[in-house]
Amino acid sequence: MELLRKDPLREFAPQLERTSIQGYLWIVFLLAVIGLGIYAFFSQVFYGHEVTGMRDNVVWGVYIVNFIFFMGISYAGALISGTLHLFKTAWRKPIIRMAEFITIIALLIGPCFILLCIGRLDKLHYLVIFGRIQSPITWDVIAISTDIFGCFIFLYLSVLRDLAKLRDYELLQLPNWRKKLYKLLALGYTGTPEQKQRLNRASDIMAAMVIAIAIIVYSVLAWIFSVTLQPGWHSTIFGPYFVIAAVYSGSAVLILCMWIFRRIYHLEEYITKKHFVAVGVIMLVLAAFFGYFTFSDYLTKWYGSEKNDEMLIQLLFKEFYWPFIISNYIGVLLPLIVVGIAKFRTITNITITAIVVIIALWLNRYIIVVPTLESPYLPIQDSRPEWLNYTATWVEWSLTAAGVAVFALLFTLASKFITIVPVSGLHGEEHNEEAIV
Amino acid sequence: MNVEEELNKDPKNSRRQFLKKGLIAGAGVAAGGGLIAAFVDATATETGEKVKVLTTDGEIMEVDRGLLKLPRVSTEESHKGIPGRKFVMVIDLGKCKNARKCVEACQKGHHLPKSQEFLKVYLLQDSEKTSPYWFPKPCFHCDNPLCVSVCPVGATYKRTDGIVLIDNERCIGCKFCMTGCPYSTRVFAWKHYPEFDEDKEPYSPEASSPGKEGTVSKCDFCPDLIRVGKIPYCASACPMGVIYFGDVDEDTVTNGTETFQFSKLISDRAGYRYLETLGTRPCVYYLPPVERQFEVERGFADMDQEIIDRYKDTPYSKKNKP
């Protein structure tokens, strides 16, 4: 009852109003990492793609891995928040905005990595002018832009009530331009029954839409690989496999974000062990699915053992042994054990598991992309070591770090603009609103 | 010696017949002055000797030999293909000794750096007990080309004469075609190579030159040579006559010295296409490595260490070159 009477906005206002010294240092650090990435990007533009580790055999490297990875974590919002919204799960409230932030931010960063792979950025507009609908890349361009648009609307609908609250909250100590911005963005929402009903209907529709769009986007992404004839890629399971891996990584990133923001903004009261266990269980179910899909894919390749599949599997167990073990064994079994056994189920353990899962899934994408390109139908016969085996260079690693830094920076800035926990409807208020629908 | 020399000098040569048939197909006399411009270098001096060339309209005209230059047709023109033709290549694996003249001539002709090979020579061995052999591999110019299907901007295209070309001015360098091609045929310009600057002519997809940084290129079957009645650089450069080039509809292939009936050659010598199971329907056929003229080891004779090192991980080298 104490909670119900307290105005959450008063509690969260300092988050928006003040930034601590550590906060500023953090932002400066992130900007420095991004600066290094910008330097790396210009060297790539200036000296050509030769500064990367990519060569004629391994034409796609860490950039594509990052692209799949960021697109994957964007699933956290789309599928997890969308599904929880549709099922009206009560506990979702404190974490749903984080999930939606992950979605939109990851969706903005992911495609940047595919751009880094493109040799002629000056001709990028050709994708629109000369676009061919037969090409899976065109499907991707259409799907991703639709996804960004859809997820943005979904996020906007879900922050609209909070924007109205921020507009109406007079005690907020913020510069005038920000208050004006809140007023503008709130679109005159005052919470009349009609507005509430419309907003709820729109949110429901968008929740269903983003789930569908996200599945399409990730399947299309998988098809970029599986429509080719390359051993290891030419697989019918890739669409659903990528979708599952994506939601799986999204759930892990959500847990990590919950842990970080819980500590920084002292949200212990709102984000409790219950939330960690709940998302942990989602992660566990996805781990089981992911393990099952991985097993099915490799079993059929290994058992039937076509010559080129056999070569690929040999490569995975020799040169890619540890990435393979971490991504396909540890990355599957750890969540099953830690979340599955009640004794281990603590906030710290679940968070550590989530971090392992994030690393495992990044490596999973790496061993999908690189080993296949290193074992083509015609054996690679070359005397130059860098043309035989792919190793990412400082340029690629710097840009990868910059991608993560942009993610963290946008997340930090977003949490300075809108409270990371939705303030409207946090204490049952919205249950009444939903009842209207 | 090249083909148009033969065409004009030796009327009895079988190659002449082949080319004449090809050239006369849909023949007429070129009328437009603009068309001639593509073949004529105005700054050169005349020799008084005329050669016949095939215009983009499939018409024949006579040009003075001294003025002849390789035509650089426009990008739009390069989409059309030479009318009434369907090109094919036959590679006789029994004769290849990895002399690499094909690779060198191709790189010179297309102004490529050493790191870019439109044609690669592999040392293959199908299984442990079977015999190793040298395997020259150009682009297969597939009739069901995955590279063309996956291109997002239509920068690579299949023509009516069977040739798959790349428009480097259109290519955005996404490299999807490189992963789409199961034969590792395509190469990428990872930087601006100095060799690109050697070519002062305007760019044409038919010449695949001058190369452009950040784009994909590959073997093009040399349509600029075909237009003046020549066979591709690799075919004319090979000292063993390994590579035959010709036309399926005319049912003729030639390596510059011998000419065969394509269908009979394939049927008599058990010609096959590499990795037929992939369903890409290549336009390049191989004759199995039987009745060898050379030992495999000959492929290492007088080669640079760099070339020898390329094959050090092959089963053959591991066994024979400890």
Overview of the structural elements:
The complex is a heterodimer of chains A (437) and B (322). Chain A has helices spanning 2-5, 8-17, 21-47, 62-73, 75-86, 93-117, 126-129, 136-168, 176-185, 193-226, 238-264, 273-304, 307-318, 321-340, 347-374, 385-388, 394-417, 429-436. Chain A is globular. By secondary structure, chain A is an all-alpha fold. Chain A starts with a helix and ends with a helix. Chain A has one domain (2-436): Formate dehydrogenase/DMSO reductase domain (Formate dehydrogenase/DMSO reductase fold, Up-down Bundle). In chain A, α12 runs parallel beside α15. Chain B has 322 residues and is α+β, with helices and mostly antiparallel strands. Chain B has 2 domains: 3-69, no CATH class; 87-287, Alpha-Beta Plaits, CATH 3.30.70.20. Helix content of chain B is 23%, strand content 16%. Chain B has 12 helices and 13 strands. In chain B, the strands form 5 sheets. Chain B has a 5-stranded mixed sheet. In chain B, strands 1-2 form a two-stranded antiparallel sheet. A two-stranded antiparallel ribbon of chain B has the order 4-5. Classes of the chains: A mainly alpha (437), B alpha+beta (322). At the A-B interface, α8 of A face β4, α6, α7, β8 and α11 of B.
Keywords:
heterodimer, A: 437 residues, mainly alpha, Formate dehydrogenase/DMSO reductase fold, 18 helices, disordered N terminus, B: 322 residues, alpha+beta, Alpha-Beta Plaits, two-stranded antiparallel ribbon, 16% strand
